[in-house]
Amino acid sequence: DAGVIQSPRHEVTEMGQEVTLRCKPISGHDYLFWYRQTMMRGLELLIYFNNNVPIDDSGMPEDRFSAKMPNASFSTLKIQPSEPRDSAVYFCASSKVQDYNEQFFGPGTRLTVL
Amino acid sequence: AQSVAQPEDQVNVAEGNPLTVKCTYSVSGNPYLFWYVQYPNRGLQFLLKYITGDNLVKGSYGFEAEFNKSQTSFHLKKPSALVSDSALYFCAVRGHSGGSYIPTFGRGTSLIVHP
């Protein structure tokens, strides 16, 4: 298996622009997680899905953030409009409950908002 | 609510010396415990986990961790550190039911191994 795939790996955009981050989880995994990592705040859980259904989005910082999972093999995290404080590394991870939810992380998307 | 504490932001150790990265947890009921490692510009990678049974768990790259229920700790150890072990280490805990299915991560500990 190729592991969790994220795209793009790097994104530089200007304040006010829409940003879409993409994730392909490992086949057969029933949980998908979106995290944000910064030096100041560490690793933050933004939202997670179980069987494509959003379960807990309490970590989403503002209404500017939204996430979807239209099918078992694809998820997006969208920021609209983006702000400089959104600059961070965004990780997608997947897991399956039969494996005690041991998580497999993607390589991350480094987002820079100018 | 479940939580994890990694009391040290940074651990420094000389190559060849033993290393310990500390983790304490709080969870309702019996815990599932995990250690992950993050190398620069990479995602987190699974190192080892405790589910049940033997309190000493062995994982990848020569790492091991000891589960201590009375002290609610799960410290990561390695008998002889390598420079290549320098990375960010995360401890995580989850419970057995309901919302506790989802692991909670600590803030991470930066391990620096000096030549």
- Number of discrete helical segments of chain A: 0
Report the end-to-end length of chain A measured between terminal Cα atoms. 36 Å
Structural class of chain A: mainly beta
* Helical fraction of chain A: under 10%
Strand count, sense and barrel status of the largest sheet of chain B are: 6 strands, mixed
Written account of the structure:
The complex is a heterodimer of chains A (114) and B (115). By secondary structure, chain A is mainly β. Chain A is built from no helices and eleven strands. The radius of gyration of chain A is 13 Å and the shape is globular. Chain B is mainly β and 115 residues long. In chain B, strands 2, 5, 6, 10, 11 and 12 form a six-stranded mixed β-sheet that branches. In chain B, strand 8 and strand 9 (73-78) form a beta hairpin.
Task: Reconstruct the topology from this structure.
The complex is a heterodimer of chains A (114) and B (115).
Chain A: E1 5-7, E2 10-13, E3 19-24, E4 31-38, E5 42-50, E6 53-56, E7 65-71, E8 74-79, E9 88-95, E10 104-105, E11 109-113
Chain B: E1 3-5, E2 10-14, E3 19-21, E4 24-26, E5 32-38, E6 45-50, E7 56-58, E8 64-68, E9 73-78, E10 87-94, E11 104-105, E12 109-114
Parallel strand pairs in B: 2-12
Antiparallel strand pairs in B: 1-4, 3-9, 5-6, 5-10, 7-8, 8-9, 10-11, 10-12
Which short descriptors sum up this protein?
heterodimer; A: 114 residues; mainly beta; 0% helix; B: 115 residues; 4-stranded antiparallel beta sheet
Short description:
By secondary structure, chain A is mostly beta strands. Chain A is built from no helices and 11 strands. Chain A has strands at 5-7, 10-13, 19-24, 31-38, 42-50, 53-56, 65-71, 74-79, 88-95, 104-105, 109-113.
